[in-house]
Amino acid sequence: MKKIEAIVRPEKVQEVRVALDRAGWSGLTIEEVEGHGKQKGITQQWRGESYQIELLPKFRIEVVVPDSEVEKIIEVICKAAKTGSVGDGKIFVLEVLDAVRIRTDERGEAVL
């Protein structure tokens, strides 16, 4: 099993969620986060004054999938989240050693 963590723009969260649901993966976790990549934030102006916003709002979407579904899910997320601009986000894939459904004590891929 793999855990896919996608960091995406706030305005793309709903599109990614709907795309994952259509792909058969409705079980996910969404969390509001802040951060920056290579661009180190953005500079904005308000009433003639410039100011730096270093931590930009993003959302982290987490999905745990069988190994055989990883590429499909990455493709779905990329297609839904891409704008073509700096700051579209990143996807990380991590190994999941085990999973347990608390209610039934089931283990492994059966809990997905």
Q: Key features?
A:
112 residues, alpha+beta, 4-stranded antiparallel beta sheet, 2 helices, 20% helix
Helix content: 10-25%
Count the E strands: 6
Number of helices: 2
* SSE order: EHEEEEHE
In short:
This protein is an alpha+beta fold and 112 residues long. 20% of the residues lie in helices and 37% in strands. It contains 2 helices and 6 strands; from the N terminus they run βαββββαβ.
Write a structural description.
The chain has 112 residues and is an alpha+beta fold. The strands form two sheets. A four-stranded antiparallel β-sheet has the order 2-5-1-6, covered by helices on one side. Strands 3-4 form a two-stranded antiparallel sheet. A hairpin with a 2-residue loop joins strand 3 and strand 4. The radius of gyration is 17 Å and the shape is elongated. 17% of the residues are buried.
List the helices and strands and how they pair.
Blueprint: E1 2-8, H1 13-22, E2 29-35, E3 42-46, E4 49-53, E5 56-65, H2 70-81, E6 89-95
Antiparallel strand pairs: 1-5, 1-6, 2-5, 3-4
